[in-house]
Each structure stands twice: as C-alpha cells, then as structure tokens.
UniProtKB/TrEMBL annotation:
This is Uncharacterized protein. It comes from Naganishia vaughanmartiniae. It comes from the Eukaryota.
C-alpha cells in the first residue's frame, strides 16, 4: 500500500494529527496493526467530501523492548518459541498466527533467527530524523516483512545497513555501518523505552493519537476510523488536548466467535 495514503497534503484547511506508534520489530501484531491503520487512512481520504479527508496524519514509530532477554547474539526463533510454548503449543500458535496474518496479506513464518532490536530502534529514529514518516514508515514495514515473511533478523547490523541504504537513510553501506558502530541515538531510544514504561505501556502495538486517545492492540480499520471521527475538530484547530485514555479493545476473531485483545506483551 502506498505511503501516499498517510497524509492529506496541500489542503489549506487540513488538520494535523500526530500518531505515535509504540512497537517492536518482533511483534506480529505491530505489523498487522500498521497494515490496518493504513487501510483506515486510505478509507478516510477516499471521500473528499468527508470531514475525515482533511485529516493530515504524521506517523512516527516509537521504541519498545518486547523481549529484554535478547542480546546481540542471534538465536533460532523456532527453538526460542518452542522453549516457551512447547512443540505442540507452538504448532497451534503458528497456525493461528498464519490465519490472522493472511487477513492482513502477510505470509507469516516462525523460521529464522532473532537478536536484540535496539539497533533497529536506533535506525528507525534515524529514519524519522532524516525524512519523517515518508522514510520511516516504509522502512518499518520493510523490516516487519523481512522478519515475519523472509526470515531476516531485525537485529542484524548487516541486514539493517542494507535496508537503511535502500530506504535512503544513509547514502552508503559504509555510512550505515559507521552509524551502528557509534552510539548515535542510543540515549534517545533508551529514553523512549523509559517513556513507554512511564505511560504504562505493557504490550504493543500501542497507538497514541494527538495525545488524546491511546489504543492498544491490532485494531481493525473500523476502530481506527471511529477514532478519526472522534478527533475531527470542526474548526480545524485540533481543539483542547484531554488526558490520554486507553481503549484496550482490539478484537481477534476466533473459531468460537469470541474476541480478545491482540497485542504482544
């Protein structure tokens, strides 16, 4: 899906909406969540006569540590999750995840390796500093796809450097490698971890809209559209900013028709 659906550019009466997306590379629901959010954005901008069409979204991924036990040393993903869920438990979980992933157009796999995602978060911070959402969001989606569909390790500096150059964050692989060997944005990312904890975030994805509404889990597009409607200001000024609320109601369809939150934590 094109990144053009994110913002309503060029409208004199557009209302800017900042969306902070607290997430981690190894959370599948974060991948599903951004897919659903972009579907909602496309719908919001599809009818130019709708008040939602003048919402100008600025998306920014923010850091969260989903698994603090991970180190720079890669480990086998399947073995890691088998140790947690057991072989039969993992098989059942994988089937469920693959079914859910297909709904979002994702070819999900548990194969591959994984290591600490701290460098991933540093890269996303650098991407936003470089070109805002126009660079950061497509890069985040590429890295999600790499991990969940193509067995890539989002903690691998070699892989991250390659994607950073392809995305225009750095001009050369050498420049990207120099970045990872430095401590650039290390403090900012760690501050982001702390901020998420202080906000009470215990699972991701966690979306904060204009500091007004916070929702956790891979919400369906319809839920995001309801939030957009709530945020529309008739005067286009954004209005006052009330306290952030948590609407932890992301549904996950099951074979019994029940629903439950869809978040990693």
């Amino acid at each position: 899906m094109s990144n053009e659906v994110i913002a309503n550019r060029g409208s004199a009466t557009s209302q800017k909406v900042k969306v902070d997306i607290i997430s981690d590379a190894i959370c599948p629901f974060c991948f599903f969540g951004i897919r659903n959010l972009k579907k909602a954005l496309a719908t919001a901008h599809s009818d130019t006569s709708s008040p939602l069409a003048r919402l100008n979204f600025d998306l920014e991924f923010k850091p969260f540590v989903l698994d603090p036990t991970l180190t720079r040393e890669p480990i086998d993903r399947r073995k890691k999750y088998e140790a947690r869920h057991g072989r039969e438990g993992l098989a059942a979980r994988e089937k469920m995840m693959q079914e859910r992933a297909r709904e979002c157009g994702v070819n999900f796999t548990y194969d591959g390796t994984v290591s600490s995602t701290h460098d991933y978060h540093r890269l996303l911070h650098a991407a936003y500093e470089k070109g805002g959402q126009d660079i950061q969001v497509p890069l985040a989606e590429r890295l999600f796809s790499g991990y969940f569909e193509h067995r890539k390790n989002p903690g691998s500096r070699e892989y991250l450097a390659s994607e950073a150059v392809k995305s225009g964050v750095f001009p050369t692989t050498e420049a990207a490698k120099e970045f990872f060997e430095s401590d650039r944005y290390d403090a900012e990312v760690k501050q982001g971890y702390l901020k998420a904890r202080m906000m009470g975030v215990t699972g991701v994805p966690f979306f904060v809209f204009d500091g007004k509404v916070a929702v956790s889990g891979a919400q369906p597009p319809e839920a995001f559209l309801d939030i957009f409607t709530e945020l529309v200001d008739p005067n286009g000024s954004g209005g006052d900013t009330p306290s952030v609320t948590n609407q932890n109601s992301a549904p996950e369809a099951s074979g019994t028709g029940t629903v439950k939150p869809m978040a990693c934590g």
